[in-house]
Amino acid sequence: MYNEILSFTQTQHVLLLAVSKTKPVSEILKLYDKGQRDFGENKVQELIEKQALLPSDINWHLIGHLQKNKVKYIAPFVHMIHAVESIGLLVTINEHAIKNNRKIPVLLQFHIAKEDTKFGMTYDEAVALINYMSSNTLENVIISGVMGMATFSDDVNVVREEFKLLKKYYDQLKETYFKSNFNFKHISMGMSGDYKIAIEEGSTIVRIGSAIFGNR
Ligand SMILES: *Cc1c(COP(=O)(O)O)cnc(C)c1O
Question: Which residues contact 100 (CB under 8 A, 6 or more apart)?
Answer without folding.
Answer: 75, 76
